Amino acid sequence: MIRRLIDRIVLLSGWRRWALAFLMGALTSFALPPYDFLAVAFIAFPVLVWLLDGTVDDARGGLVRRLLPAAIVGWWFGFGYFVFGLWWIGNALLVDAANFAWAIPFAIFGLPAFLAFFYAFAAALARLIWSDGIGRIFALGLGFGIAEWLRSFVLTGFPWNAIGYAAMPTPVLMQSSVIVGLLAMNMLAVIVFAMPALFRARQGRMAGLAIALVLIAAHVGFGVFRLSTAEIKRDGPYIRIVQPSISQELKWDAQARRGIFDKYLAMSAQEPGEGKAKPQIIIWPETAVPYILTKTPQALEAISNNLAEGQMLLTGAIRMEESEGTEPLYYNTIYAIDNMGKITGSADKVHLVPFGEYVPLENILRKFGISEVVELPGGFSAASTRRSLEVFSGFSVLPLICYEAIFPGEMAYEGAAANAIVNVTNDAWYGDSPGPYQHFRQAQLRAVEQGLPMVRAANNGLSGVVDPYGRIINVLDLNAVGVIDAQLPSRVQLPLGASAHKLQFMVVLFLVLIVAMGYFSLGRRRVG
């Protein structure tokens, strides 16, 4: 009965094949936060393999014509995955619905339609070296691995919800990332997820089962071993994260500014709970300060009056840079402010959100009335380099603003080695949706990859403290109002060193390519 069902899937054509591919992509999105229903990936990817089995090459056509049926299946799979995984982006446009409601269909369907081309490429590349049995599983893993790598940087990159995250829903399953990295995990995850497709194969079932079991055992076993032998020192500074849950509609309301600012000050000044030490560092979220601090000395004075001796404030704010004869430039910034009200350091956002913080192809698109969602003349400007931000002598942090935390390849920075990651964000744009949970999970993995504790301050959640192994020390849920007081743990030594990430992807890519090409060549010789 199961074989007959598989045969029917393989023989599907036209819209039925595309609809099933869309459905499998949508199903895969439920392997991501907040659902973490990992089992669906073991259904969706085998079905994708069988659908690609049914895309018969047209030997009379050129390369594009031969691969187009597979690319269409891959596109529909990606479209389903990204529509169901990213629909919440449309919520950001409802904050100013009068000006941006027209763009909601483009956010919900347009962005997924574009991202789906990466999965179309993955399917086409896999079909190019397709073979019977286990070879096609490795070909599919290779295709998705290269597609996700491209997605991390093409057109500034948008690697949100990379497939590899589905294989790392808990800290014990995140530890493999220090050995192979996220980009390689994308390949390995697809290979394991797709192995049940060998149920239909005449050969390779036992080999496929053995490979899948070895990879799963290594993935789980290494995580259990690393966490069971983990030694964490709690000798870092005491910190406080402030999560006020300010409504996005109020954040830039001029009449609400003073109330918002006073709320931050009041929450920062709360006495620590029983058994908690007074915080040395207080962290506010992205663009928390509703003023241009360099133009509002009264705000700096209020901060000074609110901080005890020796305390520091790290806060998101907008920084304005003026030059004579030119329009001011605005930066999305993290400031370090001491108890004297002095700005002792700052770090500007490097990777801006297209259409959120700036308009690509600005000279063309602004003529059509297209503007960024953030209400600033000309949008934000980007910093040229990422650098650590010194808070105290001997203690510095790696500052990541908003979705900068989703780019594992951008963790290189100038300055001394950081002691912690500080990620400030404002996920109130996305309401009560999967978006903030997905964002937190991706930031959580950066802590594991870097061997650094992570402090995450989000306006409305999820705010939290994560240790260098990805374990959550404390967290405030979505839309909660409160503070987190905790002592930061120390950084840990990475098994392969800090520079290994440059080789991880290439080594795994080479091995998967060798296997896929080996089976492909063997199949061609058999046919010949």
Secondary-structure element order, as H and E?
HHHHHHHHHHEHHEHEEEHEEEHEEEEH
Spans of 5+ residues with little confidence (pLDDT < 50)? none
Q: How much beta, percentage-wise?
A: 5-15%
Structural category: alpha/beta
Helix content: 40-55%
- Main beta-sheet annotation: 6 strands, mixed
Count of structural domains: 2
User: What's the overall geometry?
Assistant: globular
Number of β-strand runs = 12
Mean pLDDT, nearest integer? 90
Strand order of the largest sheet: 5-4-3-2-1-12
Q: Specify the number of helices.
A: 16
Distance between the termini: 34 Å
Question: Radius of gyration, rounded?
Answer: 25 Å
Structural summary, described in words:
The protein has 528 residues and is α/β, with parallel strands linked by helices. The chain has two domains: 2-228 and 501-527, no CATH class; 238-487, Carbon-nitrogen hydrolase (Nitrilase/N-carbamoyl-D-aminoacid amidohydrolase, 4-Layer Sandwich). Helix content is 43%, strand content 14%. It has 16 helices and twelve strands. The strands form two sheets. It has a six-stranded mixed beta sheet with strand order 5-4-3-2-1-12. It has a six-stranded mixed beta sheet with strand order 6-7-8-9-10-11, with helices on one face. A hairpin with a 2-residue loop joins strand 6 and strand 7. Helix 2 (14-28) packs antiparallel against helix 3 (41-53), helix 4 (63-86) crosses helix 7 and helix 7 packs across helix 8 (134-151). The protein is globular and about 75 Å long. It starts with a helix and ends with a helix.
